[in-house]
Amino acid sequence: MTGDRVKEILDELGLSQRSVAKKINESPQKLSAALQSEDVRSGLLEKIAEAIGEDMSIFYNVCKSSNSHNSVNNGNLLINPEMSKALDILNDQLAKKDEQISGLIKALNR
User: Fold this and answer.
1) Is 30 within a domain?
2) I want to staple 15 with a disulfide (CB 3.0 to 4.6 A). Which of 4, 10, 54, 91 is the partner?
3) How many domains in the chain?
């Protein structure tokens, strides 16, 4: 992963290098220098992902689609990062619904 691509991803997420540097307890200058690399260390990517509350895959599954919008490769389907987050929320809600239904079924069977 190139430093330029990491910078693009951070920008797409609305995060400044300065704010990310603060979150990972590095100086903005040190982070900026690390992001000049053609191959950013995976350890740094892990620190950044954890600090911004994202999965490491954000740095590896993001690609450019033919319409030039950034998309996440989710199997065979390309979806943008906002849609991916919405799907995660919906999946969490579905899991909670399933738990509630199971609880109701158990209560009815008593």
Assistant:
1) yes
2) 10
3) 1
